[in-house]
Amino acid sequence: MDALSEDLELLPATRRALRHRIAVAQSEGRAPSVVAAVVRGGELVWEGSRTSVAGHGPDGDVQYRIGSISKTFTAVLVMRLRDEGLIELADPLEKHLPGTSAGRVTIAQLLSHTGGLAAETPGAWWERTPGELRPGLADVLGEQPFRHAPGSRHHYSNPGYTLLGSLVEQVRGKPWEEVLRSEVLEPLGLDRTSGQPQAPHAGGWAVHPWADVMMPEPLEDLGLMAPAGQLWSTARDLGRFADFLLRGDERVLSARTVREMRTSSSPPEPGLAELGYGLGMQLMAHGGRRLAGHSGSLPGFVAGLWVSESDDVAAVVLANCTSGLPPTGVAADLVALVADAEPRFPEPWRPFREADPVALELCGPWYWGTSAHVVRLSADGTLELGPVGGAGRTARFRVEADGSWTGLSGYYAGETLRAVRRSDGTVSHLDLASFVFTREPYDAQAPVPGGVDPQGWRGIG
User: So what's the pLDDT on residue 272?
Assistant: First the structure.
């Protein structure tokens, strides 16, 4: 990704609107500095900054601490283990990281904050105290690690991501940061993302809530809590990472896996995950569009990274203040400013080079009872099943090795769709989670549950 792409260069009015938005954010949020970047179509198309220091402004290469955006990096490492077949998301933690007091939670529950673990560590606030105070996982979890039954609800847990970092270390046999460097940062070219600050970097500040004065915040090494919030990064690096979270990179994770990460795995929690929480990613709605990403904060810093898949736009906002500037709202506004002012051009329609004949055979109208549905074959090889001309259950399906299809979204997520064939090889009907879809409403030649009246269709009288 080039520093700025001429091919995708934003219009002057759009650039001015972006500059104005971060200027307002810095002023109203009383932040010593703020730096932001926008990515569109895989390219960094804008970066800007605002600062309280006359004649000086950070650029996209200045490091800020990114807090809980570190969790998304940790989640990427865990998903790599899954894709390599070394773990399953349904595995209990105990299977791969024995000896903790939280061994019964699953890896998926830890990723989606549904494990029921406490939000914070016992003892002094971990973000403002040295990691040496928590030398072992027992010190991170405490004597009573659970606040809810595993799987019962979404409850954001910082210790949960410490466990995931330790899981990565256990399976790889290397420190979390070393694994992150070799498996994610280096392949993606994120050479300005690190566990410790590297010059040039911003200092973290606390701004007095009722007076225009400030003081420096301590910069602690978080120790075992590093996978939950240790990282430092830049607007440019995070722009590259945001683009990866939209389209994947086969050197790290496939597009299919990052899409899975952006899919809700737990119910909403107001203020943290308005549309639920994925696998290491927060989900929210803003101005009618669906965004995925993560916020971050540590004493002295706030950060936000948000992507809109439908617009192919991402925005990053970093500031060096403990509170005041809302990075999530500002980043979401930057996405909206670009997407609304310069809507994405749709990809040109192109026919398949070679369509799957089996998938093609399933296309067209089907009926669930008297409800008309249609199956469409998408360019990415997935099937879409949805009602004709009205609201109802719509879902996408991917093909499996045995010829069945697995639901990817909506009511049928995880359910199996099968084409049932007659003795002559033609398709009799579709079976989807016990629902029978036929080519004609209540086809008497198909095994419709409950049977079909032998007198067939008729009028009154």
Answer: 62
Report the distance separating Cα 430 and Cα 414, nearest Å. 16
Which residue is it, tokens 């269709």? 457
318/186 Cα distance (integer angstroms): 22
Distance CA(144)–CA(363), nearest Å, equals 54
User: So what's the pLDDT on residue 379?
Assistant: 79
Q: What are phi and psi of 295, to 5 degrees?
A: -95, 165
Sheet of 289-298, strands arranged across: 43-51, 33-40, 313-319, 301-308, 289-298, 282-286
Q: What is the CA 187 to chain-centroid distance, rounded?
A: 19
* Residue 267 to residues 31, 99, 160, 292, 440, Cα–Cα distance (Å): 33, 29, 17, 14, 38
**CA–CA distance, 180 with 103 (Å, rounded to integer):** 24
Residue 268: exposed, middle, or buried by beta-carbon count in 10 A (0-12, 13-18, 19+)? middle
Residues in the chain: 461
According to the model, what pLDDT value does residue 354 have? Answer: 72
Q: What is the DSSP letter of 184?
A: I
Under 8 Å between Cβ of 70 and 228: yes
The backbone region for 443, taken as left when phi is positive above 0, alpha when psi lies in -120 to 50, beta otherwise, is beta
In this predicted structure, what is the pLDDT of residue 351? 82
H/E stretch holding 354 reads none
Spacing of C-alpha 66 from chain mean position: 16
> By the 8 A CB rule, do 183 and 173 touch?
no
Residues of the chain with confidence (pLDDT) below 50: 3, 5-6
Q: Are the C-beta atoms of 121 and 130 separated by less than 8 Å?
A: no
Residue 6's pLDDT is: 47
Q: In 10 A of CB 187, how many CB atoms?
A: 14
Could you count the other beta carbons within 10 Å of the beta carbon of residue 442? 18
**40: nearest Cα among 65, 14, 22:** 14
Provide the 3-class DSSP secondary structure of residue 94.
helix
pLDDT at 7: 56
Other CB atoms within a 10 A radius of the CB of residue 461 amount to: 3
**Left, alpha or beta for 25 (phi > 0: left; psi -120 to 50: alpha)?**
alpha
Sign of CA dihedral 363, 451, 402, 254: positive
∠ CA 333-24-213, rounded to 5°: 130
Residues sharing a CB contact under 8 Å with residue 44, sequence separation 6 or more, in sequence order = 1, 2, 3, 4, 5, 37, 38, 60, 236, 239, 240
Residue 353, token pair as written in the block: 């080079």
HSE of 131, CA atoms in CB hemisphere, 13 A: 16
